[in-house]
Specification:
alpha+beta
Length: about 120
């Protein structure tokens, strides 16, 4: 029976690189999941509010008021004046959500997430 001269396996360096990659990507997933969950919640709020206010009795002020209350309840920060616009003159009226979210990762590394959605009324 022959025995190998050296056993094969992971070295300490390869284990350190693997551990670094797992920690890095785990941190990314944890830090970026919050803004994406907020976007999912905002998407549901806009869809629900536009369905409730659809038709000829649509008022922009009522829509903004309901959205403001929903954002406050869900503890989501969004500037409704600049991030939420209405295109009521088009053939199909729509609500446009367009904003950016900056997430700090580490040291001087930030990630900028851009969200843009259009919802029909």
């Amino acid at each position: 029976m022959r025995t190998p001269k050296r056993e094969q396996g992971m070295t300490i360096l390869s284990m350190a690189i693997l551990l670094f990659m797992v920690i890095f990507f785990g941190t990314l997933i944890i830090k970026l999941s919050g803004p994406y969950y907020d976007q999912f919640t905002i998407d549901q709020m806009i869809t629900r509010t536009s369905q409730e206010l659809s038709g000829s009795n649509f008022q922009e002020s009522e829509f903004r008021s309901r959205m403001s209350k929903n954002l406050s309840i869900n503890n989501i920060e969004l500037d409704l004046r600049s991030d939420l616009t209405f295109d009521l003159r088009a053939t199909e009226p729509k609500v446009i959500l367009d904003y950016e979210k900056r997430v700090h990762i580490a040291a001087n590394i930030d990630v900028v997430l851009t969200f843009y959605e259009e919802y029909g009324l």
